[in-house]
Design goal:
2 copies of one chain form a homodimer.
Chain A: H1 39-46, H2 50-58, H3 65-78, H4 84-91, E1 96-101, H5 106-122, E2 126-131, H6 138-146, E3 151-155, H7 161-168, E4 174-177, E5 190-195, H8 198-210, E6 216-219, H9 226-241, H10 256-267, E7 275-278, H11 281-293, E8 303-305, H12 312-315, E9 322-324, H13 327-342, E10 352-354, E11 357-359
Parallel strand pairs in A: 1-2, 1-3, 3-4, 4-5, 5-10, 6-7, 7-8
Antiparallel strand pairs in A: 9-11
Chain A binds a DNA duplex (30 and 30 nucleotides) through residues 5, 10-12, 15, 38-40, 48-52, 54-55, 58, 61-64, 67, 82-92.
DNA sequence: GGGAGCGATGTAAGCGCTTACACCCCGTCA
DNA sequence: TGACGGGGTGTAAGCGCTTACATCGCTCCC
């Protein structure tokens, strides 16, 4: 065998830890080295330089078939697993995108995440997930995330955007999902993707009005979430269009328990309505069930509609009338935009808005079950 | 200003790209550098060495308050975002764990993921998510994941385990969630965490039998998923314990549409039963709804029970009798174990099994709504 | 008054990759 | 027959951090 030049001539001998006799000597031939193999050990074993090993592994440079085989064998024999961090450092890309969402209850976030992950994976990017709820210091968590990704997608409702830009310092491309432009203060490197809200909410509200209902209540708090306030705007618009006076929203958090409370306020007469337009399906479902359990007829006595089209909305009777959002596509789009941006594309000047679809079932008064 | 020694004396001048005039000169004072600030620029601006900057940022070494302030100011002024990859390389830890699950439909995976992410975040670790379904080459995806994490948690049903160990080459700690020991071939660095299945399934089945039912069917395919086959084992055990003959499982995939098909086979008389023990709630719910829509009485004519206790199971009437699993805890536990293992702990020799809880509602024949 | 001791900081050696560039060896062609 | 070209490989310079170790002033105490 030709004298292989030391691959890393100056490399000091590993600081010899006063090794106990029980530690197997990594250099023992045949023994699996306790610590991971590196590109150096692979190169040495294959009798080539580290550059060649890298070329084989990256697969984007010409290497003779014989050499390739030698390298692959060495990789296999040594159980070589490359160190991603070293590659990232060298190529100056993390090859990962961050996704920040509040939590993962209900199908909305899951769908979004699946879309995002799927597209990211296709693009060869890993996904690092950050759940904002329950974190005491979200900005610093996002800051830490920024440390390890090439771009970040954030849900508008994640309560991050205001502080986000500061945390990121405009350093990385950011895509805000289902947020409003008001979330983008400096806004240079931030862009928006969202599902349509105002129009479909107006449409849904108009539909309920068409059923002859006149005292509609909007249930859910528009304040914190931009998409909810857009939906309320649609609710208002539908009223205004017919010269009606929209009621103030019934501001409650999006919790099943809150829905029950709202239903109780209706049952007690505190709240009066013949139709409820709810900010999401969870709310709508818990209200409807409570009303029914108390003997009220839905939609006979009171109509109830929701938003999101969760699975349960198909199963309850009457079926819940609601609005389906292209959530999966939203996730795909976010990943896609991030990729473009990392590739050097300029941020889109205007938000991308995906269309939604009103799903009519029985709870609004339609004849469908 | 004292002559600051060049921080990186030998550092060659950046290979001057034949820069077009349109590119702003990064060195222009006041201008935000186009490329990210590094620890060097921060050190230079603060008039200290990079070591000091690092110390301030890591916060675990004594630095005088004055110096700390100078550094923090520089960090702020330059919008410095550290490069995680460089840190990872230096500290020789990715500070991230991988989680491999099939997909994200239903609350099961979401809960698991939330538990995992929560605990991982507490431990200062990022979570890289990999959805196995839809990936054409899962082993290579897992291999790539292994490149960037210190340990991996995999769902037993993710169809990964058989190939997983090979992909990882025993290089990283692995925790298999809700898998069976048979998933662990070489098994050296792999350990298992799971929810109890056999006993609670036996208990649930016995409960249904106690309602006076005698012709029970098990719906769902035990073959691919270890947890499902354990549940079927419990079904069998309950029968055997009373000298009854358990029916062969009705092997169908876990899809709503399949549930509808099963219901149709019952309605047509092809399948005969007075109680259905379903592998999960999705199946149970779609079957029950279909039967009801066709005029059958549940539980009068036929009882239906599920597994998982999804949200819908609380909303349907009758409520779905089911089994609640400590899914969140499973996620927490997986992250916890991974952390221990990365810390040097030995793999647990025996699987950790968390208890589950039978939730009785009306669909089994109980008086509860 | 001159160490010893210590807090604060700087120096420099890596961490394990990627890749520009140099080089070598042959086959070709003028 | 020698210049040329090009495929295949090696050399070495980073990528941006962390951290062991060296250094530098001080204060403190004998």
């Amino acid at each position: 065998m030709a004298t292989t030049p030391r691959q890393r001539p100056e490399r000091a001998a590993r600081p010899s830890t006063p090794s106990t006799a029980s530690m197997p000597d990594p250099s023992t031939p045949g023994a699996t080295p306790a610590a991971g193999a590196t590109i150096y050990s692979v190169a040495e074993r294959a009798g080539v330089s580290i550059a060649t090993v890298s070329r084989v592994l990256q697969g984007r440079a010409v290497v003779s078939e014989a050499t390739r085989q030698k390298v692959l064998e060495a990789v296999d024999a040594l159980h070589y697993v490359p160190l991603g961090a070293a590659r990232s450092l060298a190529v100056r890309h993390h090859e990962a995108y961050g996704l920040v969402i509040p939590e993962l209850t209900g199908p909305y976030y899951s769908e979004l995440l699946m879309g995002f992950e799927t597209r990211a994976a296709e693009l060869g990017q890993s996904v690092i997930l950050l759940l904002a709820n329950g974190k005491s210091d979200v900005p610093s968590a996002v800051g830490h995330l920024a440390t390890r990704v090439d771009g970040i997608a954030v849900l508008g409702s994640a309560a991050v955007p205001p502080t986000l830009t500061r945390a990121l310092r405009g350093r990385k491309p950011v895509v805000v999902i289902a947020g409003s432009s008001s979330d983008v203060p400096g806004g240079e490197r931030v862009e928006l993707v969202a599902a349509e809200n105002v129009h479909s909410s107006e449409q849904l509200t108009a539909h309920v009005l068409d059923h002859g209902r006149s005292r509609l209540l909007y249930v859910g708090d528009p304040a914190p979430a931009p998409d909810i306030s857009e939906r309320y705007a649609g609710f208002v618009a539908a009223h205004t269009a017919r010269g009606l006076d929209p009621a103030e929203p019934v501001r409650v958090p999006f919790l099943e328990s809150e829905g029950v409370a709202v239903a109780d306020r209706i049952l007690s007469g505190e709240l009066e309505a013949d139709a409820l337009v709810c900010a999401n399906d969870e709310l709508a479902l818990s209200i409807m069930t409570r009303l029914q359990d108390a003997g009220r007829d839905v939609p006979g006595d009171i109509a109830v509609v929701g938003w999101d089209d969760v699975m349960t909305s198909r199963y309850v009777r009457p079926g819940m009338t609601t609005v389906r959002q292209p959530v999966h596509e939203l996730g795909v789009l976010a990943a896609e935009r991030l990729h473009q941006r990392v590739d050097g594309a300029a941020p889109l000047p205007a938000p991308v808005v995906l269309p939604t679809e009103v799903v009519l079932r029985g709870s609004c008064g339609c004849a469908t079950p």
